Known about the structure:
Elements (H helix, E strand, L loop, with lengths): L2 E8 L2 E8 L2 E5 L10 H12 L2 E8 L3 H8 L6 E6 L8 H15 L3 E5 L2 H14 L3 E10 L2 E6 L4 E6 L5 E5 L15 E4 L30 E5 L9 H11 L2 E4 L1 H5 L20 E5 L5 H4 L7 E6 L6 H4 L2 E4 L2 H14 L1
Parallel strand pairs: 3-4, 3-6, 4-5, 5-11, 6-10, 7-10, 12-13, 12-14, 14-15, 15-16
Antiparallel strand pairs: 1-2, 7-8, 8-9
Helix pairs in contact: 3-4, 5-9
The site of flavin-adenine dinucleotide (FAD) has 27 residues, from helix 6, helix 7 and helix 9.
Amino acid sequence: MFSRCCRTKLANQTVYLFSRYQSTLVIAEHDNQKLIPITLNTITAANKIGGDITCLVAGTQCSKVAEEVSKIPGVSKVLLADNEAFKGFLPESLTPLLFATQKQFNFSHILAGATAMGKSLLPRLAAKLDVSPISDIIGIKDKDTFIRTIYAGNAIQTLKSKDSLKIISVRGTAFEAAALEGGNAASENAPDADVKNEVSEYVSQELSKSDRPELTAAKTVISGGRGMKNGENFKMLYDLADKMGAAVGASRAAVDAGFVPNDMQVGQTGKIVAPDLYVAVGISGAIQHLAGMKDSKVIVAINKDPEAPIFQVADYGLVQDLFKAVPEMTDIVGKK
Ligand SMILES: Cc1cc2nc3c(=O)[nH]c(=O)nc-3n(C[C@H](O)[C@H](O)[C@H](O)COP(=O)(O)OP(=O)(O)OC[C@H]3O[C@@H](n4cnc5c(N)ncnc54)[C@H](O)[C@@H]3O)c2cc1C
């Protein structure tokens, strides 16, 4: 399956050439119940590379997820690794599984989303397999050549990898989501691996609960910055967001000041979003913030400083005090 043999004539001798067949492993991200959407974007990226796509579903009581993955068009095989050891998806437990999987199947590419999980797992695996990880790609030129941003999104790099195995994290917003129905991939158990982890232990997790859409998947995002002054004032943004069906994000300054939790941070060291509409409220537009939202289709900025750099990337700008503008907007949206 992993090498393609072709026959050619050379000086009257028949020579068999073996070229490595493209085969990509996509590491599925999920919560043991359902897939996290970035896996679908990662599968689209894998499709662009070409060749067979295998999806690894590792978790605890996660067979439902394996079923979901098997229906995604383009996936030819699902490897299921169901083990108590994968509680919390600790990279220290998952890396030996991936190592064993790679040793058995010899994939040419291993892909995961550029999420907290992908970012902690892939560099470990790359170190174990002695290859250079390629992070946060936004485009694929061919099987060896990838596009990614550098300098906080200010420059675009085209990178050609000479490694025989490419280990890549994928920026979800740069690739369309694959369809959820239409495929019929076979499932089998992932290879056995010694996943005993004495370095770290999963204790518990506290997830912020919200009925609003997930930040990276939302079609509209309203973000607040230091200009919001405190956490209580974010209620204004939640009210507006609820009327617009939007997610709420924040700048790092707002997170660092303790206004909101850090899973709301948008930017170079936060989440990358590319919604249809991004509304920046009381955010100056530092390059590290722009790195996380400048691919949004329409950008609206509300800032009382007409010189704020955010206006350079905004499609629509409102120079006004946000404490006046936001309640007015909420009123208008509410009447529609
Ligand atoms: C390595 C590194 C990584 C970073 N990563 C990130 C990141 O991921 N995300 C991120 O956001 N930042 C990041 N930063 C921080 C970044 O450089 C900025 O400091 C930060 O984005 C500023 O946030 P802000 O725009 O909310 O605050 P400020 O720059 O202080 O801007 C506040 C804005 O609010 C406006 N304002 C104030 N009051 C009002 C009002 N009443 N009405 C209307 N407007 C008002 C002001 O005019 C001002 O423009 C990073 C920095 C570094 C060095």
